[in-house]
């Protein structure tokens, strides 16, 4: 009746339609979960990179404070100090006002934000200085107290990446 080929040599049209339908249903189930897994891995990378940079900033500040405690660095009374001037200082190294006697590097490289692609080759992060408001989106330029993502995207849990 509706057979394209003889029963001994091929498939009927109904068998082909059923097979294609099953494949379409399976692929429609797999594709969203693959996209979610990709987004989740990028979020893990973003958290790790933020933790790495913030840890380096904290280590820089601890080293500075140790120098002040040992009275090898004179702290300014009118301006709080102890944070790096830029993120590049963490990579290039700093002797922290001569306290260390050598340039200590706090990062091997500045990690990239997986959700924000800058126009240049260098990774781009939003920065706040110690005088900036906690939710400020502009950098005061004095030092680097904190970093945040420049992405406007929303995470799986509903929070904004720039608020992490």
TrEMBL record:
Task: Cite the Pfam families for this sequence.
Answer: N_methyl
| Biological process per Gene Ontology, one example term | protein secretion by the type II secretion system
Q: Membrane-spanning residues where?
A: 12-32
Do the record's keywords include Acetylation? no
InterPro entries (UniProt xref): Bac_GSPG_pilin, N_methyl_site, Pilin-like
Species assigned in the record: Citrifermentans bemidjiense (strain ATCC BAA-1014 / DSM 16622 / JCM 12645 / Bem) (Geobacter bemidjiensis)
Q: What is this protein called?
A: Type II secretion system pseudopilin PulG
- Sequence segments annotated as region (Disordered): 121-141
Keywords assigned by UniProt, alphabetized: Membrane, Methylation, Transmembrane, Transmembrane helix
Going by the entry's taxonomy, the superkingdom of the source organism is recorded as: Bacteria
Per the record, what is one GO cellular component? Answer: type II protein secretion system complex
């Amino acid at each position: 009746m509706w057979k394209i080929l003889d029963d001994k040599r091929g498939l009927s049209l109904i068998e082909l339609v059923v097979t294609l339908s099953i494949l379409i249903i399976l692929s429609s189930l797999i594709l969203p979960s693959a996209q979610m897994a990709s987004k989740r891995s990028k979020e893990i990378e973003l958290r790790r990179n933020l933790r790495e940079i913030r840890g380096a900033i904290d280590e820089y500040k601890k080293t500075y404070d140790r120098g002040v405690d040992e009275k090898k660095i004179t702290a300014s009374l009118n301006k709080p100090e102890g944070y790096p001037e830029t993120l590049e200082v963490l990579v290039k190294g700093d002797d922290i006002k001569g306290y260390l006697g050598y340039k200590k590097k706090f990062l091997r490289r500045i990690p990239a934000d997986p959700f924000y692609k800058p126009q240049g080759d260098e990774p781009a992060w939003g920065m706040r200085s110690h005088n900036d408001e906690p939710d400020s989106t502009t950098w005061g330029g004095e030092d680097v107290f904190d970093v945040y993502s420049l992405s406007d995207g929303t995470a799986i849990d509903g929070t904004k990446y720039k608020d992490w």
